[in-house]
Amino acid sequence: MTPNYSYQEDFSLRHNNVEPADVSAMLKTIGVDSLDTLIQQTVPAKIRLEQGLRLPDPKTEFAFLRDFKAMMGQNQIFKSHIGLGYSDTIVPTVILRNILENPSWYTAYTPYQAEIAQGRLEMLLNYQTMIIDLTGMELANASLLDEGTAAAEAMTMLYGQRPAERNSAEAYFVSELCLPQTIDLLKTRAEPIGIEIIVGDHRNFDVTDARFYGMMLQYPASNGEVFDYSALIAAAKENGLQVVVAADLLALTLLTPPGEMGADAVVGVSQRFGVPMGFGGPHAGFFATKEKYKRNIPGRIIGVSVDAEGNRALRMALQTREQHIRREKATSNICTAQVLLSIMAASYAIYHGPQGLKKIAEKIYGLTELLAVNLRKLGFVLENTNHFDTLTIQTGAQTSELRALAEKAQRNLRYTATTTSISLDETTQEADVIEIISFFETLKGAKTSEKNVTWAIPAALTRTSTFLTHSVFNKYHSEHGMLRYLKSLESKDLSMVHSMISLGSCTMKLNATTEMIPVTWPELGKIHPFAPASQTKGYQQLVADLNEWLCEITGFAKMSMQPNSGAQGEYAGLMTIRAYHASRGDHHRNIAIIPSSAHGTNPASAVMAGMKVIVSPCDANGNIDVADLKAKALEHKDNLSCLMVTYPSTHGVFEETIQEICAIIHENGGQVYMDGANMNAQVGLTSPARIGADVCHLNLHKTFCIPHGGGGPGMGPIGVAPQLVPFLPGHVNDGTSGAVSAAPVGSASILAISYAYIAMMGGKGLTTATETAILNANYIKARLEKEFPILYTGSQGRCAHEMIVDCRPFKLSAGVEAEDIAKRLMDYGFHAPTLSFPVAGTLMIEPTESENKDELDRFCDALLSIRAEIREIEEGKADKANNVLKHAPHTQSAVLLGDWDRPYSREKAVFPLAYVKANKFWPTVSRIDSAYGDRNLVCACEPMESYM
């Protein structure tokens, strides 16, 4: 025997989770002789790629971590005093280990199936309570993408809610002391919908000017000044002007909250509550407002309801506001938010409690005051009368000398031609301040050593109201207490650590541990998004490599990594198309044709980009009606901007006419936007460019392994054809404009996850992943189709990577809805597939390549067992109203406490198949009454007695 000393582990075999013997068995069930034959029958030959992906050879997990550590080591970790909404912070290790590094938290999906998501729903309710308390407002959502996005959402929400006396006002005033990246993003979002942004000095703003419907202020301001806005806001309110305040959460533990000043909305970011800077993200933006705007607020709201047993239960409330319901009538396209980061921020507040947060804030304020006292003593002029954590100093001609001193000491300050701003944070110590003072001593050739500081914030600006009074913020301050609380919440939620989550169009695949490890490295986390380019060479290499690889995968010329969600990618892509048309003098091209089966974000994004939506119907087979599309394109050829199309289609089929469809749009002057939600069926087999698209977004949190995090973070970079490259999003920090996210590279730190996935899979591994995803979907289809109608297939009877199971016949035959099947699956240990999209009364199943045959069989066995339970109703053996499906899911209390009066056994309720007994997941609440929760909206933590 000769030992093989060249052996290298193949990561793709860890990711693509089907054994060769199982492949043969699955192909036999499907009825094909080989995987190649299945792919040929599924993917139209004319769109297939002629050659494999030209990507670097795959790396082992060990080699990747070694090489990536060296690459990211090119980043220089300077102490950041730049501020501008990004602060260094201390992540409590109990939160780092038990949330950020814990797959039970980061592999969960958005909590649409609330009965098996009570843990993260409770933490999101805690988050909303935290935001409401600190801002002094009445209502908050469960996060937005970043501060800039939150500010833009406030601007558009209030635009739609203009009071009668300002109903014709089209202008929005923005203080010049708002964050520059926020101003940039506001301009991007305002222009296509006809809002005029006017930036100026709020101290000179005339609130009686009838042109304006609203205004935005920063608190504290970007130069560090803490203004008392009370009189200005009062005057604005008297004149029908709506006011948004962007606020620093930590500062609000010391400062009078904007809600007490009369603000209509308060926005910001919770990053400094224990979430690393990460070169820009991900971080949870926050949005708080008044109760009267509850049906207009963007994003998800967590509300309190009751379950079928009368117990308190949490759910996502008022979902009829959201894009998946309202589509082109939606005012926001927000879908993925930042749930994992919201949970981290809420946990940080719980762990420290109100007094702990206040002590951290007081320390930062005290150190900033120490710096201010000594700088003034040296003779420097400060722009600040009042401050929290930031000072702006007039440094004039000495600015460049100061910069040299600071950079030699590895500190980043913020500079203009004649001023220097310094922001302190939770990690700052007295020694840091003394070193910073020494730079100024060098400039002056003098010494100072003043140590006496006093509270200098005026009484009118000092917070007197209490906050975070609920017991959850006042009882888990020991590590044991916090650890056990987090564990109790974690145990309530079903995630990928338990079983397959087969959500169609969501691609819940493996989030490999090796892919996740670098996210917590300081080389990624401790970099400010506006750090000098000389300090970010590791990130630059990451972005450059990922750009090259994703261009190879998509066939496009260039990517923009800035969009920090799929919906933001849609918006960025449409704005790129808009700018392209404008450059050719075609400003009038504003018609977006969108198939009726499209994701709800598509029409919502189009409206946000200033477009008029024309809906194109689908034919009886679910495909785009080409004749109708051609007629509409011809009708609107003079004003046609684009087509938005998902491929494979939202009904899980590779439409064979896709190239013809794209050609029709091009012939009539439009561009083709491809929604990349279903890219997991394309990689290595075809590409957006191959089918004829001009731009697409990629959901890196779907196809490229960023975990869903219970509802975020995500990333939605866009790729474009050559003619669109000049019109990709810019950013004020780079001296350009057109930002769609607060940071130039969006949520940059999680790009490392997708980078790792591609680097370890290689071109062949990625292609095999696509083929395996298609195999798994067709295997499930083959096992189910005799008992469940499969709604749509391709011309040869195949589905792509997902399929739609039609549950509507069961409503007629047994009174069973798709929702009943979804809830019953919980008793079998599974999260439901996508419910009622893209067709009402259906389930859309997407297994991905990461599930093995055993798991696929368990899932199929569960659905077939449920079909047998439906048949019992159809045959009169079970009651239509009182049966195992209508009472699902079943909790421990339901089967153990009180008399059992149901016409089926306890065992049937909770152990319907043998495999369930070995690894039972228990829902902690029974079916939730959604209507009750919307009628009795409660979006903050209630008194403790309501938990009993």
Can you walk me through this structure?
A seven-stranded mixed sheet has the order 2-8-7-6-5-3-4, with helices on both faces. With 948 residues, the protein is α/β, with parallel strands linked by helices. The protein has three domains: 81-501 and 917-948, Type I PLP-dependent aspartate aminotransferase-like (Major domain) (Aspartate Aminotransferase, domain 2, 3-Layer(aba) Sandwich); 518-761, Aspartate Aminotransferase, domain 2, CATH 3.40.640.10; 768-916, Aspartate Aminotransferase, domain 1 (Alpha-Beta Complex), CATH 3.90.1150.10. The protein starts with 10 loop residues before the first helix and ends in a 13-residue tail after the last helix. The longest helix has 39 residues, at 339-377. GO terms for molecular function: glycine binding; glycine dehydrogenase (decarboxylating) activity; pyridoxal phosphate binding. It catalyses: N(6)-[(R)-lipoyl]-L-lysyl-[glycine-cleavage complex H protein] + glycine + H(+) = N(6)-[(R)-S(8)-aminomethyldihydrolipoyl]-L-lysyl-[glycine-cleavage complex H protein] + CO2. It comes from Aquirufa antheringensis.
